[in-house]
Amino acid sequence: MTESIGSTPARVGAWNAAPGRQNPMRRLMDRFDGSVVPYLFVLPAALFMVGLMIYPTIFNVQISFQQMTAGNLLSGGAEWVGLANYQAMLEDPRFTTAFKNSLIFTAASMVFQIGIGLALALFYNQDFPGNLIMRPLYLVAYAVPVIVVASVFNWLLDGQYGVINWALRSLGIIDGPIFWLNDVNTALGGVIFINIWLGIPFNLTVLLAGLKSIPRELYEAAEVDGAGRFTKFWHITLPLLRPALLAVGMLGIIFTFKMFDVVWVATKGGPAGASDVLPTLSFKLVFEQFLFGKGAAVLNVMFLFLFVLSLIYLRVLNRQELRK
Amino acid sequence: MKAGTPRAARLWRAGLTAVVSLAVMGAAHAQDITLTWWDYYGWNPNIDRETNALVEAYEAQNPNVTIQRTSFGFADFRTRLIQAAATGTFPDIAFVDQGDIPVFASQGLLQEITPHITSWDQAELYYPNVTAGTVYQGKTYGVPFVTNSTVLFYNVDMFEEAGITEPPKTWDELRETAKQLTQGSRSGFCFSAVPTEEGTFTFLPFLWQAGGDVATLGDQASIDALTFIKQLLDDGSAPRSILSLAQNAISDQFVAGNCAMMVNGPWVLASVEASDINWAVANWPEGTKAAAPLGGESAVVGPNADVAVAWDVIRFISDPANLTGVQVRELGMLPNRTDQADDERWVYSDTRKVFADQVMVALPRSVYGANYAQISEQIWTMVQKVLTGAATPEDAAKTAGDAIRPLLGA
Question: Which of A56, A168, B123, B269 is at 20 to 30 A from B391, Cα to Cα?
Fold first, then answer.
């Protein structure tokens, strides 16, 4: 047994075996000691996720196979009906309309939010007086609560007294009043319009940050090679902006697909379900008609859709990381 | 010490006295009972104050009872009740909308009060159309507390300006008058057609007046009713925005001078009276018969409540002897019993008389059963489809009727 110089006499015990001795207990402690601490850090978040996200999701899936009412929600005893709720849902024209509307709502919102956001970001990437003052104003707009925005747009888009109609008529673009949020043909468009306004500041901020991270030298080098503005945009800006565009795109799709308050406050999904999206439909089923099983079925469809999208996003992100 | 000695006996007696007095004190405290009371009467400080006064009046007479009152917004109320049901915290006394008793009773959330009603001497004073809504499958679940209905409000100045002397009494007169009064940005007649219960509440009188009913949607009467409201819109007498204006918002338009007539309830009287409009009320114009919607709230007993105590509270607040004139006025209560019909606290003005008369022909929505929430959704969707031109009255009525018929009678 060797002893290092100056070491204090160790107490007799398995844990305090002298260094160099291959003590099995020590080996176990070493392995354990190394890897338990990270798990402890993750534990609170894991408990939170299991309790508040995973359990409700599983419960929701369970409800969708049952005939549940407020009375038997607590006391149990809800009968199992198999796929009846899903069948009823697929046969319900309200569901097909809401699903179609959700897709249109999400796609149109994303295209315009990113398009206008990118255009504004390119604009604000330049140097001009007033640049630094105007940029934060967009964030102020972003800070306004969604309910307030939807209510104000409700008045702006009003057929008789709305400012937007007045402006369009003064410019001669339309002849008579258009009842944006009260007409089955334009209600969805009206809601999309409000949502685009809501989303632009976020896209602007993220894309501007992405633009700022592109090194100036690349543009200068391209100019030396004789590249025009469009070439610079297509071959330098867009490829290097891909991570930011990807983040904004995927997160935006997920967030927009489950948006409830804009549609609810503006039209409540009306008139006659013309602007109904899946979140508002499921809200009505659960909280107005107490059809918990059917509402759960609709919510599960939403969840599945978003889950698949998230997986795609993570996969693309991972590939990007690997490439780096 | 040994048992049986004088000292031991004294200690025993002292101990026994202590235990007995603790038990008595405990028993006295056990009679202290707390009830939870939920309503949506808090949206206006005056109504809130008067409701609290009523609660305190009961507590003063019954010191061992404490009532914890919570007030919610009208839009939220049903959702809150369902959440409470799901978490086992359904209130002991709740003031639910007239049409909702079958909905909640069928879910096992209400305790019946039939034996208390049968032995209550004041029960027979209630108007039959008002109490019809409190019975579900032969059992009584609530007592109508606030009863109201809607009437026709009209702008007297606009009438005089157009040379109209009398408010319209028939559908034809309503259509004509509305057309005459529509000029510029002012609409002749406004009514709510929102995609919520308020939309159904506003349409049902038209259906009933045409001689139709929910069970027979798709028949000529229903088509007539839908065609009539569509004509009002097409004439320009009613603005397109009624599709998203709830009853309070319609009242705002009336008060702003943008509507010459509207159908609305006593809950808007405060803001109409406070405005500078010269207004008056009249009974609903009649179609083939007179009809109006029965609104208001009934007091019901939740699943966790001590029924005897809850019944005592309900009995107290329903007795006119315990209500002040201010309370009746602020809560917008209209006579729902024969002993209120001539009571000055209930009928203190010509306006109230019009409302009181309207209640006599008001019809309840709760007769449509426990699936009323889904039935209502079909009805407002049908109205919106017709008003937006998305479907003809015939098709919309048939679709709604086919969807509703299997839901009835639950």
Answer: A168
Handedness of CA A57, A58, A61, A67 (dihedral sign): negative
What are the φ and ψ backbone dihedral angles of B170, each rounded to 5 degrees? -125, 170
Instruction: Return left, alpha or beta for A272; rule: phi > 0 is left, psi -120 to 50 is alpha, else beta.
Output: left
Strand bridging mode B292-293 / B362-363? parallel
* pLDDT tens-place string over residues B232-267: 999 999 998 899 888 999 999 999 999 999 999 988
Q: Do B280 and B302 touch, CB atoms closer than 8 A?
A: no
Cα A121 to Cα A248: distance, rounded to the nearest angstrom: 13
| Tens of pLDDT, residues A180-232 | 888 888 999 999 999 999 999 999 999 999 999 988 888 888 888 888 888 88
Q: From A136, A147, A271, A318, select the one nearest B385 (Cα to Cα).
A: A271
Sheet with B279-282, edge to edge strand ranges = B187-190, B259-264, B151-155, B279-282
Residue B82 contacts A, CB cutoff 8 Å: yes
User: Which pair of tokens denotes residue B165?
Assistant: 């002397």
Q: What is the ipTM of this complex?
A: 0.72
Q: Closest Cα to residue A276, out of A102, A117, A154, A44?
A: A102
Return the bridge partners of B36, or none. B68
- Residue B183 dihedral angles phi and psi, to the nearest 5°: -145, 135
Enumerate the residues of chain A whose CB falls inside 8 A of the CB of residue B195: 268-273
Q: Which two tokens stand for residue B364?
A: 């309840």
Q: Find, in chain B, the residue whose alpha carbon is nearest to that of A179.
A: B240
Q: Is A72 on the interface with B (CB under 8 A)?
A: yes
Q: Which residues of chain A does B82 touch, with a Cβ-Cβ cutoff of 8 Å?
A: 70, 287, 290
Would you say residue A6 has pLDDT above 50? no
CB-CB under 8 Å, A273 with B381: yes
Smallest Cβ–Cβ distance between A271 and the set B78, B103, B384 belongs to: B384
- Residue A14 to residue A33: CA distance in whole angstroms: 16
pLDDT tens digits, one per residue of B335-385: 999 999 888 888 888 999 999 999 999 999 988 888 888 899 999 999 999
